[in-house]
Amino acid sequence: MPALDTHIVLRAHVSKLQLREMSTEEERINGGPLKAMDLLKQQKLLRNVANEVIEETSRHIRYRRFSKREFVVHKGDAGSSLLMLMSGRLQVIALSEDGREVGLDFVEPGDYFGELSIIDGGPRSASIIAITESVVGFLPKHQAQTLFYRNPAVVEALLQRLCRTIRQASNYRSMLGLTRAYARVYSVLEASMKTSAGGLLTIENLPNQQAIAIMANVSRETVSRAIRSLIDGEVIERDYRRLIVRNAEMLAKLARGEAELQLRAKAMGEGATVGQSRPS
C-alpha cells in the first residue's frame, strides 16, 4: 500500500477510536452523579442562558477523556469544534528554541477555548495538553455558531473575553517595547497580578522561569535575577506556587521602566543591614 494511503487509513482509524472514546465518555457523564446538564450549567459561556439553550447544547456536545500529558489540540490544526473543559486541568504550551514544551497558561474547569477558529475559520492558535486526567466537551462548529449568533448572553461573554485578549495583546506589545530586560519581566508579573480573598494581591499559578522568559523575550537567568531583586526589595514574597505582591505601586513603576535604581538601593540596603546584624 502506498505511504500516502497508509497515512490516510491510520488517520481514519484514529478518528474512529476517538469517536468511540467520545461515545463511551458521554455514557459515563450522562449516567454518573454529575449529569451533562449540571456540568454545562457550570460553564462560563453558558451561565446566563436559558435552560432550553443548555438542553439543545447537550444534545450535540460530545465528550472525551484525556490522559495526563496527552495533547488536546495542536497548534495549526483545523478548528472544527468549540471545546469546554468539564473536569481536570489543561495547559497552553509553546515550544522553546531547543524544542522543549513550555507552559504559558492554564485552562480550568468551566473554561472554554477554540472560539477563534469557530468565528474566523482559522486554524488553532495554540497547543494545549492535559496536565491531569481531564474530560473535554466538543461542540461541533455549526452548533457552536448557532449558540454564538442566537444568544445575546453568549455574545456578551465572547465580546468581554475578546476585549480582555485585545488589551492583553496591547499590553504585551507595549511590554516588548521596553528597552530594559528587567522591566519586561516586571511587566509580565504585573499583568499576572490578581486580587485574592481579603484584598490580597497575588500572582497565582506562577509560570516557570522559562515560560516567563519566552513571554518577556529575555533569558531564564534574567528572570531569576529580576524575581530575586523583587524579593530582596520586599516588593513581592514567595508563598509556595504563588507570589504575594507587597508593594503594587513599586511593581507598577518597575513595569514602566521606572524606579529600578530605587529597588536596587533598597535591596542592597537590606543586604547590608543583614550583614551588619550578623555576629563577628
UniProtKB/TrEMBL annotation:
Gene Ontology cellular component list: cytosol
Coiled coil spans: none
Any Pfam family hit: HTH_Crp_2
Domain of life the protein comes from: Bacteria
Molecular functions per Gene Ontology: DNA binding; DNA-binding transcription factor activity
Domain Cyclic nucleotide-binding residue range list: 45-165
InterPro entries: cNMP-bd_CS (IPR018488), cNMP-bd_dom (IPR000595), cNMP-bd_dom_sf (IPR018490), Env_Response_Regulators (IPR050397), HTH_CRP (IPR012318), RmlC-like_jellyroll (IPR014710), WH-like_DNA-bd_sf (IPR036388), WH_DNA-bd_sf (IPR036390)
Keyword Transcription regulation among UniProt keywords: yes
Record key words, sorted: DNA-binding, Transcription, Transcription regulation
Keyword GTP-binding listed: no
Cross-referenced PANTHER family: CRP FAMILY TRANSCRIPTIONAL REGULATORY PROTEIN (PTHR24567), DNA-BINDING TRANSCRIPTIONAL DUAL REGULATOR CRP (PTHR24567:SF68)
Protein name: CRP-like cAMP-binding protein
Organism: Paraburkholderia youngii
